[in-house]
Amino acid sequence: MAIGAWILIALMCVFWCEVESKYMVYNTTSKIAPGKLNVHLVAHTHDDVGWLKTVDQYYVGSNNSIQGACVQNVLDSIVPALLADKNRKFIYVEQAFFQRWWRDQSEAVQETVKQLINSGQLELINGGMCMHDEAATHYIDMIDQTTLGHRFIKSEFNVTPRIGWQIDPFGHSAVQAYLLSAEVGFDSLFFARIDYQDRAKRKDEKSLEVVWRGSKSLGSSSQIFAGVFPENYDPPSNFNYEVNDDSPIVQDNMELFDYNVPERVNEFVAAALSQANITRTNHVMWTMGTDFKYQYAHTWFRQMDKFIHYVNQDGRVNALYSTPSIYTDAKYATNKAWPLKTDDYFPYADRINAYWTGYFTSRPALKGYVRTMSSYYLAARQLEFFKGRSKVGPNTDSLADALAIAQHHDAVSGTSKQHVADDYAKRLSIGYEETAKVVESSLASMTRSSSKADSGSPVTEFHQCLLLNISYCPPSEVDLSNGKNLVVVVYNPLGWKREDVIRIPVIDENVIVKDSGGKEIESQLLPLQNASLAIRNYYSVAYLGKFPSATPKYWLAFSASAPPIGFNTYFISRGKRPVIATASKSHVVYSSEEKRSDVIEVGPGDVKLVYSKNQGKLIRYINSRTMVKESVRQSYSFYSGDDGSVDEQASGAYIFRPNHTYHTRSDGQASFTVLRGPLLDEVHQRINSWIYQITRVYKGKEYAEFEFTVGPIPIDDGIGKEVVTQISTHMKTNKTFYTDSSGRDFIERIRDYRKDWNLELNQPVAGNYYPIDLGLYIKDDSKELSVLVDRSVGGASIKDGQLELMLHRRLLHDDNRGVAEALNETVCVQNKCSGLTIVGKYYLRIDPLGEAAKWRRSFGQEIYSPFLLAFTEQDGDEWANSRILSFSGMDPSYVLPDNVAMITLQELDDGKVLLRLAHLYEIGEDKDLSVMASVQVKKVFAHKKINEVTEMSLSANQGRAEMEKKRLVWKVEGSSGESPKVVRGGPVDPSILVVELAPMEIRTFVIEFH
Amino acid sequence: MAIGAWILIALMCVFWCEVESKYMVYNTTSKIAPGKLNVHLVAHTHDDVGWLKTVDQYYVGSNNSIQGACVQNVLDSIVPALLADKNRKFIYVEQAFFQRWWRDQSEAVQETVKQLINSGQLELINGGMCMHDEAATHYIDMIDQTTLGHRFIKSEFNVTPRIGWQIDPFGHSAVQAYLLSAEVGFDSLFFARIDYQDRAKRKDEKSLEVVWRGSKSLGSSSQIFAGVFPENYDPPSNFNYEVNDDSPIVQDNMELFDYNVPERVNEFVAAALSQANITRTNHVMWTMGTDFKYQYAHTWFRQMDKFIHYVNQDGRVNALYSTPSIYTDAKYATNKAWPLKTDDYFPYADRINAYWTGYFTSRPALKGYVRTMSSYYLAARQLEFFKGRSKVGPNTDSLADALAIAQHHDAVSGTSKQHVADDYAKRLSIGYEETAKVVESSLASMTRSSSKADSGSPVTEFHQCLLLNISYCPPSEVDLSNGKNLVVVVYNPLGWKREDVIRIPVIDENVIVKDSGGKEIESQLLPLQNASLAIRNYYSVAYLGKFPSATPKYWLAFSASAPPIGFNTYFISRGKRPVIATASKSHVVYSSEEKRSDVIEVGPGDVKLVYSKNQGKLIRYINSRTMVKESVRQSYSFYSGDDGSVDEQASGAYIFRPNHTYHTRSDGQASFTVLRGPLLDEVHQRINSWIYQITRVYKGKEYAEFEFTVGPIPIDDGIGKEVVTQISTHMKTNKTFYTDSSGRDFIERIRDYRKDWNLELNQPVAGNYYPIDLGLYIKDDSKELSVLVDRSVGGASIKDGQLELMLHRRLLHDDNRGVAEALNETVCVQNKCSGLTIVGKYYLRIDPLGEAAKWRRSFGQEIYSPFLLAFTEQDGDEWANSRILSFSGMDPSYVLPDNVAMITLQELDDGKVLLRLAHLYEIGEDKDLSVMASVQVKKVFAHKKINEVTEMSLSANQGRAEMEKKRLVWKVEGSSGESPKVVRGGPVDPSILVVELAPMEIRTFVIEFH
């Protein structure tokens, strides 16, 4: 007989033998208990709208080898879990998923879900299509994607989300707080990711929860109660209950071994007290969930049921099913005052040497594409409105959807896997294709004069040139030798009249441009560089699958103008160009003086750029009108990305972790060429084999435009590179610079310094980077130097007098934040891949101190909304004779004030129109324009008769008045009860319909026409 | 503007833009389609009753860091999944889990589940508490654990399982086929694990599905339709749908990307056709599930719904929700004849060099404990019946439950993790503790004479000695100097009168033994060896937590007898022992002749063992009665376990993979000692520092008993060892030997050969190992050499004339079959651990050819059911004068026939009694005993009046007649329609109540008493 562990004294028999089993009913009825510490259990799932998998793959649960995640499971399983106990609650956030799911459900399930939403068991919060990023997103996109989600929720469930829930984005913008939270009517905003040093101090001071005033201009009128979670958005450790999670379950069956109720209750109470220790009031929130959890919701609720039952039986603390709304109301009910927070939570570091400032630039092509589509979507909705929206399509809906999804914090942020980034691009492409049809048919219809004879003529086929960035525009690359005219319709989506130089590729140098009056206008030919042609050909094959059929030789440039929210028409035809205007065949022209000296001056207008010929470098910026003159150097450098070999923290998609800085060195093929012309001068600089720059100075414009071509970034040395451009001056900027918040308010940044805590900085470069959506500037006691960008990038001022932008990143290591890919974008032709090349622009201007905002704001709006060009060919003068050549959507006598932009004009499903007007200036930004503005709505809609104008919340899901009435008024620590008075536009008199806008105010209206 | 992948031509728009979403209803109504290939989708989960986690941990889903598994989730989620569509079906197997879950449910859920079971949507199959092992399990345990499950199912749901579902055990026994399948009324038996070479041939010949006749004796009367799965019990690859599984889902939403219905349908059809290629008839079964799957059942059914819908829409094959019952009926309906299979499916290899023959011996202590408890449970139920069962306890239920769980194919098999093995032992210990109370109170009551004066005397406290194997028996280690008597009640659970030598430790040499008549009887003292005391002390501390208080000096041996199913009483008291009987103080006695020669002869009776003194080794076996004489060597060796360095196949818990054989070498401390006495002689051999052997020859018994102490197996050389004992003779056995099937039928084994295919053998040792539960034997033309064992082990005949048993294994590597632990059992005292020591026995006998079965069968039954001893102390002769000293449960004049054992006598919950009688002999095994036997039931229950006797199926869940009426009669290929006639016992005449039993027949009755 052998010996085993067979005589363990049967202590368990106390339970085992005596207890009769019966069905257990847990008491989950607990509400807030006033005298106790209340632990608000908030059941939630965080469902990325694309990251390691595409949004559709996440929804249906495919591609699980990459990540086990299926949102269908979550939503399917939450319904019976909530029905099983009416005390249980759940919040759902991402409408992109929710809408997919909703469409799949039976009417019975839809009815059930409506009841669950009505009863508050299921609460839709945040409510945008995605949980958008806050660094790489433009505020217009944030508004649009939030509106899309909020209006769906309103129309389907008659509900307005109360809570901002930005738990995962990598830092938090002021715009998120004041615009996308306060202005959409949220009562609070919650998130998880702030700097680890900031967090430590806030835990210490119990200031994780604050009143956040994100806008200097709107102050307390747009403040929000904002809570940072103590660690992350997971449950306290050991309280995770997804299927197969390894947190200890509550084993309360005395018939089985491992009964552990006392231990688990103790651990619950300990975790609650620990959190109470860093939290004001006797309410703490536990975020019971994390990424893609609740695939089988039952597993979570079973354990939470038990905790609520046994913890409350224990009585030391009070556990309850809650939501952020209930939690917010409980906080509010305490009537406490909260610390004040201003500005934003950028940049974000989650530990030493780990600044999440790389993603400000990651995937610059995607970022550029998103920005282009954002602008296009704005313009297209205007045109859709003019023609009348078609529900069955084509319409702008699929672009709206694609753009909304692209705002996700792993989409435009550049932190998804490559195949997912491709999916975002594909969706944008599909959205564009359909929207282009809307644009083209709208223009076709708008150019057709009802009074003229052509009403029976065939529908015009307009074409557009999305790929002008790679010099590819088949509609303009046409042979005009047979008497054809190329008709160019130039649409201006801005509310102001506007003039701009247009460039299109042409195959023939014998072309002339005429305006809508038939008068030839000045134009300029610029030779198409071989470098540009090489990119054009390579990318055509790579992305269109074909080699371009024609080969243009020139860019044809001419100055076009268009009325506000309207179009103008130009004609390009074969013709002999005046000899003078084309300068010379050589295109490289130095004045005789310049031939002798090293210095050459470029620019046909007031702004001159002065170069050193020998160095091939910019040395000075001069504006002869404003008398500004500044020594300026502009150069390219790269940081070599850390490979993680020291502390496992490589530079990657999220994190910027440089380990050296290198100036780009000439590879012996550097070149420097100046092209001059009547409209613009160009300076071509071949910096090295993978950086090419064209600097343009336009006659009528007071700025310099830098077009860079960066890539393929070489990696054959095994080193990832993060390419920056640096602009250096002698300005004494005292460590201070200014960057925009999501394209809107400018925030003061001080190098190596944070306002909220004593910064310990180990990354002097990465830790000083900020997200740039509109631009950044520095100033000294006499000047401001501003740089504006064409897409979101990272930017900084690493030295006094200097600004830099990170333009492109190619890295060879993953940075350990989950994406599990190196950020190494390539483009492939026939399985041969090379690094992605980026073509982009930024704009530089130096103004006298205090005079720069006008350019930043007005020209910033022009960058966002360039002319929309449409092309068609017509024989002879037929078009000019039979068509409408010019149009403004507004009263011909009317333009919007200089400080107001129309950021939304959109026909809604119900035929009403959504109008959003944005004051572009902050308080004190400009002496003339930082004032109350007025818009005459009747003149905006001169062609229509207005029945009713209703002011709405920013996301247009509720009346503004109703929203304001509900708004919670939070107290701020250290201030008297009264908040400082903020000026805002007054109510709109329905008879005169004039909308006032105070600085930085955005007002949203739904307009019903007769 | 940058360049992205933004112009991918929007082919998807064909779907995206045109399809209006609506709720999809899948057509899952399909039944069998006669003209098509039918793919039976059988949704199942395989829930190990303990393996990497304990049964309770698996049930509640704790300890998920080891394995994500929660059976509660499975059963919770299956209910709504089945309710959602009445075409869906599910099978559930393991009653240990199902009963835990059932107890936890509300009445409403119980009612729902009853309906699901009634409708056939939820089918309980196999139906035992666990899916028992088939190698290390004894048939009595298999019957008991199956009965426990089947009777629960019958009483709760009025259902009898139709299908055997042994999908995971590592090889399959004949007993499983004919007893635990055919005799419980199953219509078919399915499993997955057979030798890879056998499988290949069967696929080739389409003979995976057979009619299996497991018993030579019962032949076609106990045959079963048996199907082997083509690969394993998973779905075809790429059809796994657990939450987070990465098989491609069916993406049928045309609004989303990755629509893949055609691809998935094609893959389904291809997999079905591939299986049809190796399967007879147009029915194939897909096992849709695997270990612990369906934690969120919805995920599987969602995909199966889609497959059934789209595959049937496609039409090439017919997919349907099915169960093994439906599949079996479909197979039966084809009226085809099937290949015949006899014998069993051992040993199992899943690839080259991977014979699963290690587990036959793995965890020998646990195997021994299970066998001891099995026997104890049998005896205890008899005693419980005699006293009358108590529902509220103590009763034998918890031992029943623990034993049932211990039969699981990762429990007694020795293939669980260590902590789980400990859990099995703990459960047995708890069960034993309670059952011991039943035994003790029953004996107390049975020994109390109602007619005598002691009815008012205090209740007797009996004690038992479970740990006699480590020489630990506090009740017998008492000081009898004050006139106390030690009362020893000897209970005999067998149906025959029986005499056996008992040994108990005593502290004093001055003790004598008296029988129930007060007459002193012969006894013998044997000194307790230091080696034994060391083990006693170490293991007492390790498992009882205390050092023994007394130190016995001797074993007191005496010969006890007891009536059938009854007891006898012996008294031990202080007294002067006759000098002659104690031999001499030295205990080592050689005759004068022996002193001169090298040869010495041991054995007080007819059997003599002859040793060489110089070699210290057995050289000859002689039986002077039968004149059998055979040269015999007995030795110890070990195989060094392969470390997996060559082909990643180490020797481990499952797999026996030797890479060398070593004879145990003397370490210079070998010793050889002979002790002689009137009752038995002992030969003590210290083989080396970790192997000690005592060989015993008893006066009245014609066999040799080998008690081995093996361990701690040294591993300081870094080599795992698998210790075997070898018995070698000159018998010409022509590669042939015989091993039992689960303790019952003997099956002929031929070395290096399989009947069913041409064996390619790369493992000449491991590939010839078979499971031994009762024993094994060899024979030549005049003799049979038999070895019987005290627990399940692995055994083989590696050379002609030789037998070997693997006794213990200690290994240092995992063998890559999932348990992820090396089989390295240790025992720890104060955190110092050493290898586990095993004490066990085997028995050897040589008979003239044809005369050996009697010993194997009758003595085999005695090994299984040793005397049950109970001790109490009494003053003087009080006990003898006032108590009942002898008892038989049967009519005093009656004993069971020599060829019949009563394997179950048990009072059921409802007061009826379960009686199982087993004929112990196969056809032709013994000239006298392989004949029809008769049992007079009235005499068995001489003390009761029988009302009704109902013959039942083996698992007592249905009337036998009803079962036989339903039985499907399968055709066998190549035989005429008529199956050969098999003789079985006839019907039981209710008036005379005589039960006939044909060879190997087991008959089960439920008896109702007046």
| Assigned CATH class of the largest domain in chain A | Mainly Beta
Rounded to the nearest angstrom, the distance between the terminal CA atoms of chain A is: 98 Å
User: Level of helix content of chain A?
Assistant: 10-25%
The CATH superfamily of the largest domain in chain A is Golgi alpha-mannosidase II, domain 4
User: Which second-level CATH architecture of the largest domain in chain A applies?
Assistant: Distorted Sandwich
- Using the coordinates shown, work out and report the CATH topology of the largest domain in chain A: Beta-galactosidase, Chain A, domain 5
Tell me the strand percentage band of chain A.
Answer: 25-35%
Multimeric status of the protein: homodimer
> How is the biggest beta sheet of chain A arranged?
9 strands, antiparallel
Q: Name the chain pair whose interface involves the most residues.
A: A-B, 100 and 100 residues
- Count the domains of chain A: 4
The structure class of chain A reads alpha+beta
Number of helices of chain A: 20
Mean pLDDT of chain A: 93
Tell me how many strands of chain A there are: 49
Shape field of chain A: globular
